[in-house]
Write a structure and sequence with these properties.
Oligomer: single chain
Shape: globular
CATH topology of one domain: Rossmann fold
Structural class: alpha/beta
Number of helices: 15
CATH class of one domain: Alpha Beta
Strand content: 25-35%
Radius of gyration: 23 Å
């Protein structure tokens, strides 16, 4: 089936209506839901959320593994007129407490084990806690099922939290239209069809992780959620379910490329998609050799505009380092510092305009004004654009190549990590007086985290390691800590991050 990218957005919960009602939509431990049952379940959970006293515009947070409720929540919250806040299950209580407080969530849905790590003071005073093991069943029966909504596609429906180059994670505000058109766009350029089976291995709190659900359902296909422990789990799941679509980030692709793949698993795959960082040329070559019949999609995106570019798989052998051209509904401009359009092979800032641009950062007008600014005069869409801060080059064929990031974000294992958050955690340990976190090149992770630290007291190294283990998820753990009695400062008296970066890269 060829998908025509219709530019007319609908309420997000209507994605439950797109597939043939008797066709499989979601396969999980409890069995397989067809698209008709998916719609019914979405209506039940939406009714249950409203029966709990949730009002239009209230925020409902979910901190769950990839189970049935986690997969239903984006559409159920949308049908109920709520705003969904999906929290990465790998986060620890400090990050979760920030997200709950910042979003003002009125309800947190989570499991008993995670709930035990959250103190009452970690939640807003009016944030109710719903323990899945005890109350999820009642949630499905608490109220009358809600029919498909007539919500305005421009309304806020989701807040996805992503780290900034400074400070705590910030919430990106997404409308029904943002997520609907993102699903349509990806389904169209990937060529998804009703017989496709998507293995959802990326976190649902990640923009593309959530899109694994949405784009597959738009095409009428079936999603197989997987929380994996080892790459072998992914290989087995692909073979067991005849998976046709697999998305990953570079560190996972490296592990999968090193795995043994049975012929039947290789044969079922139609497409591989990469996001969250650039694949190295050797990795591209290895994947092309391992999966010769599967189309390999290299993509670039940012949460503030979801997805910006993709490379036509027919071109990846000749242009393995390219991020391609704009996806449907995206306008991508390469802009000089004066706002004019850069010429061919001239570096410039990637600016994304069009209907995929988010509504800004939740309750953060200052940071919104820095990133969400009027589109360049040359834009055909106009309006507000996302100024990425990333430098790219467009060649004579119109293909884009990523050059580098202008901010100080660390990208490791597909995660965008705020160095400030790591530094603040180090100081909070009491073992460190000052700290600077940097990302350094790593063949497997993209970047690994290097921390420069000035110790306080005795046994600082052991105290810091224990603090990080208890308070930060694995992907935020420094690979190396360099201890210094003094850290360099610049003329303004601030810690000289640039000097330390030069030293680390020397």
């Amino acid at each position: 089936m060829h998908i025509d990218p219709d530019p007319t957005p609908r309420p997000l919960d209507h994605l439950a209506l797109m597939g043939r009602r008797d066709a499989p939509a979601l396969s999980q431990r409890g069995g397989v839901l067809n698209h008709g049952m998916l719609d019914q379940m979405v209506g039940k959970v939406a009714g249950g959320l409203r029966a709990l006293g949730m009002a239009r515009g209230d925020r409902v947070a979910s901190w769950l593994p990839k189970n049935l409720l986690a997969c239903l929540m984006p559409l159920a919250a949308a049908r109920a007129g709520l705003v969904h806040v999906s929290i990465n299950p790998m986060l620890k209580h400090g990050q979760v407490a920030h997200i709950l407080a910042d979003s003002g969530a009125q309800l947190l849905v989570t499991g008993r084990g995670r709930a035990d790590t959250i103190e009452q003071q970690d939640r807003p005073a009016d944030c109710r806690l719903l323990i899945e093991e005890d109350e999820a069943g009642a949630l499905f029966e608490a109220g009358a099922p809600l029919p498909p909504s007539s919500n305005d596609p421009s309304e806020l429906v989701s807040i996805l939290y992503t780290s900034g180059s400074t400070g705590r994670p910030k919430g990106v505000m997404l409308s029904h239209a943002n997520l609907w058109l993102g699903a349509v766009s990806v389904a169209a350029y990937l060529g998804l069809a009703a017989d496709d089976r998507t293995l959802a291995v990326l976190p649902l709190s990640f923009d593309y992780g959530q899109n694994q659900l949405l784009s597959t359902w738009y095409a009428g296909g079936c999603v197989y959620p997987l929380d994996y422990l080892t790459p072998r789990d992914v290989v087995r799941a692909v073979g067991r379910h005849g998976i046709t679509t697999l998305a990953g980030v570079p560190p996972l692709w490296i592990q999968l490329a090193e795995s043994d793949w049975p012929a039947e698993s290789v044969a079922s795959l139609r497409r591989l998609t990469n996001t969250g960082g650039r694949m190295s040329v050797p990795l591209v070559r290895r994947l092309r050799a391992l999966f010769p019949e599967a189309r390999l999609f290299s993509m670039y995106g940012l949460t503030e505009a979801f997805r910006s570019t993709f490379l036509d798989p027919m071109l990846i052998d000749d242009h393995p380092d390219s991020i391609g051209k704009a996806i449907p509904f995206a306008e991508i401009l390469v802009v000089r510092p004066d706002g004019s359009i850069a010429g061919a092979d001239e570096p410039g800032e990637l600016v994304h305009a069009g209907p995929l641009v988010a509504q800004g950062y939740w309750r953060d007008a200052e940071r919104t004004a820095l990133r969400f600014r009027p589109a360049p005069p040359a834009s055909s869409y106009g309006g507000t654009a996302v100024w990425s801060g990333d430098t790219v080059v467009r060649d004579g064929e119109g293909l884009l190549r990523f050059v580098g990031r202008d901010d100080e974000m660390i990208k490791s294992s597909g995660n965008r990590i705020s160095p400030t958050e790591i530094e603040e955690a180090a100081v909070a340990s009491g073992a460190v007086a000052e700290a600077v976190a940097l990302g350094i090149p790593d063949d497997r992770l993209g970047q690994s985290i290097l921390l420069y630290a000035r110790p306080t007291g005795e046994s600082a190294e052991a105290r810091l390691a224990e603090w990080f283990r208890r308070n930060l998820p694995g992907f935020m753990q420094p690979a190396k800590v360099i201890w210094r009695d003094e850290l360099p400062r610049n003329a303004n008296g601030k810690l000289d991050r640039a000097a330390l970066k030069r030293e680390a890269e020397a």
